[in-house]
Design brief:
This is Methylation protein EvaC. It holds the Pfam family Methyltransf_13. By secondary structure, the chain is α/β, with parallel strands linked by helices. It folds into 2 domains: 211 residues, Rossmann fold; 125 residues, 3-Layer(aba) Sandwich (Rossmann fold), CATH 3.40.50.720. 32% of the residues lie in helices and 22% in strands. It contains 13 helices and 17 strands. The strands form 3 sheets. Strands 6-5-4-7-8-11-10 form a 7-stranded mixed β-sheet, sandwiched between helices. Strands 14-13-12-15-16-17 form a 6-stranded mixed β-sheet. A 4-stranded antiparallel β-sheet has the order 1-2-3-9, covered by helices on one side. Helix 2 packs across helix 3 and helix 5 runs parallel beside helix 6. It is globular. It starts with 13 loop residues before the first strand and ends with a strand. The structure holds S-adenosylmethionine, thymidine-5'-phosphate (TMP) and zinc ion.
Length: 410
């Protein structure tokens, strides 16, 4: 007998479509010698047959992922820094032009977006549970509250600061299994004409590109216009705009407003129609995705094994959270990849979770270059390949695996 899995949004039935087995916490980089104390959980994904929300079937306790030493820094990419500055300026010239406007950002991390808002003098508050990154934001003069945003925290903010014109969350809402509590809180915190804007990896892009490494502990939900519209409706909010974004391998920026307060844009109907036409809400589409994942897994393992047997030197680039799924699911360890280069200080000197490949600073990447580099941070390909042009010039070849396994120049 199979156990029924309840949808975290609507209590409907969740049908599992891909299972990655036991996986570690994706950002829990391991101190050498402490490999035996790692935490593992069953990583599998399913879709709700009622509201269509795609979701993990099991959550990792939030304090295991987001804590004082959470290593991810949002400012790590130049292209993303520009993206955040543009986003902040766009709010400043649209939603934040009234009398004493107020913006709240959930998951502000190191403050990369709010610093532009703070410089403009607009009233703001970041809500960020991970203490270390919150301290970096506070050091930039940003007002930060160290908390997990949820209904009770929203009520306290409203009491202390008044209603918000904008609540913003990037790559954060999809991280929160208790989304009902968050949306009730947002609904309560927003002013009558306020908006909740959030951007997260888009299910349509994940399925199109077979970017299965977007599936890991922190990414609990995989949003589509269909599932977001229904989730919003359940909380007296309405999906009033959508915008596709090229960042992080393909995202959508969704805008929700109190139900009836704004007219939905044509883009909403457009994306809903696109999803219906491509069959994004059909179980068969997701099952086919699961089958393609297994093909990539076999191809990547076969390639890396052949390169090792031929005596090729292989390194990896970008110790991303995403890479936990690809490395562990494909069984890629230090026998196949000698190290992973990464600019994040808190990851260096440690081992990748579960797969135990040493993480080394970016300045270790130089002549003599390895023969091949597995690009784990494929979402930053343009920036990284431009920066590391010397590797290509020296005859090195990049290996990518989204949407399929490829070796550049071959
Ligand atoms: N917004 C940044 C960006 O897009 O680069 C940071 C994204 S990071 C992947 C996710 C952030 O969400 C982490 O800094 C984490 O601490 C924070 N977070 C997790 N749960 C949260 C919650 N309930 N409320 C607010 N922030 C949360
Ligand atoms: P992300 O895909 O979650 O943004 O993570 C990107 C990771 O790649 C992060 O650990 C920082 C690292 N990185 C580099 O090492 N060099 C770079 O040039 C860029 C853009 C990222
Ligand atoms: Zn549901």
């Amino acid at each position: 007998m199979t156990t029924r899995i309840f949808c975290r949004v609507c209590d409907g039935d969740v049908e599992e479509f891909v299972d990655f087995g036991r996986q570690p916490v994706s950002n829990a980089f391991v101190v050498p010698g402490e490999e035996d104390s790692e935490y593992f959980f069953p990583l599998a994904v399913g879709a709700c047959s009622s509201c269509h929300m795609v979701q993990l079937v099991e959550e990792v306790p939030r304090e295991r992922m987001f804590h004082q030493d959470y290593p991810y820094l949002s400012s790590g990419s130049v292209l993303m820094r520009n993206h955040w500055e543009r986003t902040a300026k766009s709010f400043l010239s649209t939603e934040l032009t009234g009398d004493d406007p107020f913006v709240v950002e959930l998951g502000c991390n190191d403050g990369v977006l709010l610093e532009t808002i703070a410089h403009s003098g607009v009233r703001h508050l970041g809500v960020e549970p991970s203490g270390g990154v919150a301290d970096i934001a506070a050091g930039k003069g940003i007002r930060v509250r160290k908390d997990f945003f949820e209904e009770s925290v929203a009520a306290r903010i409203r009491e202390q600061e008044g209603p918000a014109d904008v609540v913003f969350a990037a790559n954060t809402l999809c991280h929160i299994p208790y989304i009902g509590s968050v949306l009730r809180g947002v609904r309560d915190l927003l002013s009558e004409n306020g908006v909740f804007v959030f951007e997260d990896p888009y299910l349509g892009d994940i399925v199109d590109r077979t970017s299965f490494d977007q599936i890991y502990d922190e990414h609990f939900y995989f949003f589509s216009a269909h599932s977001v519209r229904e989730t919003a409706r359940l909380h007296s909010l309405e999906l009033v705009d959508v915008e596709r974004l090229p960042v992080h391998g393909g995202e959508v920026r969704y805008t929700l407003a109190p139900a009836g307060s704004r007219t939905p844009s044509e883009a909403v109907a457009g994306l809903l129609a696109e999803e219906a036409a491509s069959g994004l809400t059909l179980p068969a589409t997701l099952t086919a995705f699961g089958e393609r994942v297994e093909r990539i897994r076999a191809d990547l393992r076969a390639l890396l094994t052949r390169l090792r047997d031929e005596g090729s030197r292989v390194m990896a680039y970008g110790a991303t959270a995403k890479s936990a799924t690809v490395l562990n699911h494909c069984g890629i360890g230090p026998d196949l990849v000698e190290c992973v280069v990464d600019t994040t200080p808190a990851k260096q000197g440690r081992l990748t979770p579960g797969s135990h490949i040493p993480v080394v600073p970016a300045d270790r990447f130089g002549a003599p270059y390895p023969d091949h580099v597995l690009l784990l941070a494929w979402n930053h390909a343009e920036e990284i390949m431009a920066k590391e042009e010397g590797f290509r010039a020296a005859g090195g070849q990049w290996i990518t695996y989204v949407p399929e396994v490829r070796v550049t120049g071959s």
